[in-house]
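Q: Can someone sanity-check these two? First one:
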Amino acid sequence: MWRDKHPRKGLYFLTSASEDAKPAEVGDDTEPLARFVARSDSTGDVHLLWYGEKLGEPTGSEHNLYYGRWREADPAATAPELVMPGIYPVMTVKPSGDVMAFSWQPSEDGGRVYSRFRPAKGGEASGENRFQDAVVIAAVPQVTPIVRAFTSGERWLFVWLGQYGADRRDFRLEGAYSDDNGTSWTRFALDDLRGFDVASLQVAADAKQHIVLVVTARDRSANDDSKQNVFALHSADAGTTWSSAVALRRPTPVEQEGGTEDQDPLALFSARNPSVAFGATPGEVLAVWEDWRGIRAGIYAAVSRDYGKTWSTSVSPLMALAGANLGLRYEPNAIFPSDAGYSVVAERYSDDTLEKKRLVRLDIPSSRVVAIAEGAGASPWPGDTEVVKQALRERATAYWNAIKEGEFSDTYEYLDPFFRARFPLDRYLATMGRIKYSQADVEGVRIAGSIAEVSTRIRASIPEFRMPTTGELVSRPEREVTVKNRWLWIDGRWLKEFRVESQDVVFTRY
């Protein structure tokens, strides 16, 4: 399913991979835009919800949600139904074909979250399976695109990230459930993550009232630059009560050595975009996410054997490919169970510019899940031993010796691959040589995970030269200073992170 603007703006639906297959246009004259969802039921019907910008609708809104249905027995989709105003098409469908659609709508006194129920029973002519009247779920000043609808057993659930306060920075992950097909709703809040800026949310729910939520979130209240992390919450009663939020990443005792008393060393590295699924074995849940603890992006996992109450976390990436960066999208849910284990639809970056990527499939056999549960594997971090520190001192010394000698082709090879992917050698050489170094002594090394801070005492001067843009003569006398540089453990060796000091710009993404 996709939205296209050629030959005209429309929403197209294709059910066959055959080269001769022709897509059906299901958007009609609704002027569809690029947000839509598709859900199937047990009869083979596919239910579609999208938002469009058709003018002159009776809602008076510029943007509205529309519903359509495709049946295998009748390839022609039903005519679009105007559902309600909105810009976030959210819908869930039960196996029976019952549909619940949701929308947030602004109002003069804030905003409201609404639902509309569409029963599967009855015929088109009777009107019994048209959408029923809209119901107000909750008053919410503003919502983000982080919205999810799902069912657990016979219960309907809707979860959203609300924004409160004058500056809209009071983030609240909250939701509501209904046991009477949307006639009434009971609201709940996941207060453990109140104030956390949530960037993604995925759900696994079964018919026996088990629910697991996994989210990307970061607490911006104390530090606006804090790294994203991944958390899980679970419910054993279809959302009536919820567990505390737990971080899925946990350092091993060896990894903890790189941190401080009040900081987990993993907090130095981003983790995001978790996906989650129940396995074939009752109680088994597998969560996967994109993790930058190795400076390169990798896919890590956590497994639960008790429906999300407790977790065992992998200490190494699911697939270790030298020079590769593997990530996940924030949506849709990218993990799928099978009899042999699980499959994950990941993204592999084409190179270290991190600009282009392609979809790849990662298969996780049951034996790998068992290994995660048993804590097998080795951390990608080099450790914080004296042997490792001495090796880094020697490498940093070799780098500074090459700098002193003006061997900049050699120093280029010491720099991180993300910089080198964007700046070829000739461009780098054109920027070097203005500063003359007469002394460089490595004085200290501090390692935290795959990051090291190296302190070096240098003596340097800038011989007189003429600025090419202004013609001004510039020079600086020799002076002695201590500089601190960051070195990164990448692909089994230490590389210096290139930083544009004047702009505080780096090319890494961890």
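And here is the second, same format, sequence then tokens:
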Amino acid sequence: MNLSYKFIILLALFSSRCLSEKTYKFPKEKFGNPLAKLLSSILIDFYSENSIEVDITRSAEDQKNQFIQSGILNEVLCDVNAKIPVRLEDYKLTRERYPRIFNIFIVDSYQSFRRILYTNKTDAFDYRGFYTVVLTSLHQNYTELVRRILQDCWDFYIINVNVITYDPSDSEKAFMYTYFPYTPDHCGKVKPIIYEIFSKEFFRKKNEIFPDKVGNFYGCNLTIGTFDFPPYMMIHHLENGTLFSGFEGVVTRVLGKRLHFSLTLKTCNDRWGRVEGENSTGLSGMILRGEINFTLGAFSFSFSHYGMMDSSIPYHATPLTLLVPPGKPYTPMQKLLLPLRYIIWSCLGACFVISAIVVSFAKILAPHRRTFIFGPGNHYPFINTINVFLGGSLSVVPRRNFARYILILWIFMSLVIRSSYQGTLFSVNEGSEECLSC
């Protein structure tokens, strides 16, 4: 019997040991990972020089890749050595007052990348910001994976983005991919290129980490959505093309010459339209659906537009002078009644009317009941009500509990009303002597 118990105990210990080894057999990460070294160089050379904080958001498909990402992060934080504050977040971001500008995404698949970009609201990220996507898993079709990630970025007009991944032929190297949407060979397309090669802790090509990608459109055609709206935009249809004039028309012509792009005009009868998501109309709906590249037409700032699209920097400002005619001076009655609103005066009048009715009704009551309400010796209750409201004193105070309770309530209300009235009256007399709204 004892032998069988020992056998069962040994078998249980052996099984639990095997299960624990199977469950907690974590991949061991050593320092020297090329992705970690490349990311550390980007953090030190660019992010620390241009920002006071960087947001690192990560997402993984399974637990193994989470541990791999943790190892890369440990090495990066060790190399950076507090040169820039880093905020680590999961793909479900906390809501911030301002969109995130300097971002690093650590992902292991295309689904992980989409989970970060699409799970959060549109105001979580500033699409004009700078993005580094770290692909920690090497897939067979990794070039197609990089292209899909960059294509999603282009769909959101995220231009300043780099994707770093392993070199499939050399584990000591890392590639940095990016795309140029406008080149002499194509317009508005995503064709990933190996922009930089990182080997032995050095960049091979020594390129700028985030180059200017829209400084030259190489004669590409852009679609503009606008309408005739003098003096901001005036459209003239000529035999050899369309001429834009007005404030925004001149800006459009100058930009076209400076950045080397041509224009195709699209107009809309609904003008600015309404911003209602997929049901947006007018030029707002056209730009949200991707039918035009940009729009002009004296757009004013509004919260509905702010939540869906960005505005340009101000390029035209004019001083505004308001001429307001002088109003009539306050009359003595207006100065007397102005500190309190009409609803408060109405309530006060109702209180005095109710007091007068109660006093009149109490005269027909028995003396002991009238004494219970007003107290003994109170021969002029209505006059005493007005006296207490104006801050006067009583020669005879009530000695019954109910009468004292009524008196305390009335004194407290009168104190609040008088203090509010006097404070507001002082502010009115201290301000303008003219009534502009009369």
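A (reply): Looked at the second one. Residues 1-28 have pLDDT under 50 and may be disordered. Residues 332-437 form one domain.
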